[in-house]
Design a protein that fits this description.
about 425 residues; Aminopeptidase; 7-stranded mixed sheet; 13 helices; binds coenzyme A
């Protein structure tokens, strides 16, 4: 393939847009007449915007493309382009206005296994017009990634529910809201819904069938049970380092010595269905992992050891991952390493202690959860704990010569607070 930097490679109409030819790449960029930048590429060009890679000089518009709560300065954006961009695994593209080549936003494309995840940003100072540009950028990115690059599925990570124009434009190309997490995005004092919008490869739908037509497999009663709230423990009965104590179990921070137990039980795993098969865990990696978790400040993954009150045995872990302190949400997770302690309600009891910590100490407003279709027990446990089903994420993992979907779930702090509380003496029965 010819190098796009070589003018001989450009079709005649594109050459016209270049004011003067020069051998210096940087000079090429600066001498393009405003409004003709898109003529230097043949794809990822929409009606109003086009997408192109980040290049030196883009730092001038740092406030329009850098995401985050606080906008980046021009100098830090310049440093990032020069020093860090080359090491990025994600694909970063600029959203550029065709009429004058002004950068108005940016897209980041990430991969997870065979899936594509896209995050977008448009400078909010462009108002409603900006929403249309972002929608156009998303559509181009989805169609390019899926239809042209033959991927199974690509998703826009987060479309706020108060942007119907973006959702409508995405629907027009056949994408759909695959999960709607309610009140998972903060706007000032209010919380709005957050949509994951997913675009499927139509050829793969013909081969594999429509994933939305498959019913979520279910076990369990599907009924939420009263909350098993923390209990009051006094003096000597308080387990060492406990941060929440329930009728049968307590939560405490993970410590290095727990890694040995985790490794021991990972070698005795008998159930391959709840993840992508069984994992082999090395003790040093587990130890490093526990240490790493505590190193970020504030922690974006808080994970606790679940221990039996009767003998302090460490039987599992529960945590909140992907904590987003700005939107006050996070993803809950749980794993009972010792098979003997699964399906006996310990998971549910420990999760309620975790919810108490997440909502009342971390101040989160909502929790999300993702579960593979095959892991019906985990989904049943979530429903039992008060979670609601909010969607389907198609074909996220490979399984049995095909692909398996995930179910998505949510629990809002207010809903959890409004649930009935179990009496301490009946808590064990309700959990099991
Ligand atoms: C997921 C997990 C934390 C749930 O905790 P738990 O203590 O086992 O859950 P509970 O006993 O409170 O509830 C289990 C629910 O599943 C149902 N269930 C029990 N055993 C089951 C099985 N083998 N298959 C399917 N459903 C089952 C129960 O009926 C119950 O629902 P119900 O009370 O409404 O009838 C725990 O099983 C575990 O660690 N599993 C392995 C790791 C894992 O899957 N982690 C989650 C990844 S998303």
């Amino acid at each position: 393939m010819a190098c796009p930097r070589n003018h001989n490679w450009l079709p005649p109409d594109m050459k016209e847009s270049i004011v003067s030819t020069t051998t210096n790449d940087q000079a090429d960029e600066t001498k393009i007449e405003p409004g003709t930048g898109h003529t230097r590429q043949t794809f990822l060009i929409g009606e109003q915007v086009y997408l192109r890679p980040i290049q030196s000089g883009d730092e001038k518009y740092a406030a329009s493309w850098k995401q985050g709560i606080v906008r980046s300065s021009v100098s830090s954006a310049e440093k990032w382009i020069e020093e860090d961009l080359k090491d990025e695994e994600s694909l970063h593209l600029m959203i550029v206005r065709k009429s004058d080549d002004r950068i108005v936003g940016s897209l980041v494309r990430d991969r997870w296994k065979h899936n594509i995840w896209i995050d977008g940003y448009i400078d909010p100072l462009f108002g409603d017009q900006g929403d249309l540009w972002l929608a156009e950028a998303y559509c181009m990115m989805l169609q390019w990634s899926v239809d042209e690059q033959h991927r199974l599925v690509a998703s826009i990570n987060r479309v706020p529910g108060n942007k119907p124009v973006i959702l409508e434009k995405l629907e027009e190309i056949g994408a759909r809201s695959s999960s709607i997490f309610h009140e998972a995005q903060r706007v000032g004092d209010a919380f709005i819904d957050w949509h994951i919008v997913t675009y499927l490869n139509k050829d793969w739908v013909r081969t594999l069938g429509d994933p939305y037509a498959i019913e979520k497999p279910r076990t369990g009663t599907g009924e939420p049970r009263p909350v098993i709230a923390p209990v009051d423990v006094e003096g000597d009965n308080l387990p060492l380092n406990a941060i929440r104590v329930g009728p049968r179990v307590y939560l405490r921070p993970l410590q290095k010595a727990d890694a040995a137990k985790l490794v021991e039980w990972s070698r005795r795993e008998t159930e391959p269905f709840w993840s992508s098969g069984r994992d082999v865990v090395a003790q040093t990696s587990a130890e490093n992992w526990f240490e790493r978790l505590g190193k970020t400040e504030p922690q974006t993954w808080v994970r606790f050891a679940v221990c039996l009150r009767e003998n302090d045995e460490y039987i599992g872990s529960v945590g909140v991952d992907q904590i987003d302190y700005d939107n006050r949400c996070g993803e809950s997770e749980s794993e009972f390493h010792n098979v003997e302690y699964r399906s006996k309600g310990y998971g549910t009891e420990a999760k309620h202690l975790l919810f108490d910590y997440a909502f009342n100490t971390l101040g989160l407003h909502s929790l999300q959860s993702w579960v593979m279709y095959g892991n019906t027990r985990s989904a049943a446990a979530l429903r039992k704990q008060g979670y609601k089903d909010v969607g389907i994420e198609p074909w996220l993992v490979r399984r049995d010569g095909g692909y398996e979907c995930f179910g998505t779930y949510e629990l809002l702090a207010d809903e959890w607070r409004a649930m009935p509380r179990a009496r301490v003496e009946e808590a064990g029965d309700l959990a099991g």
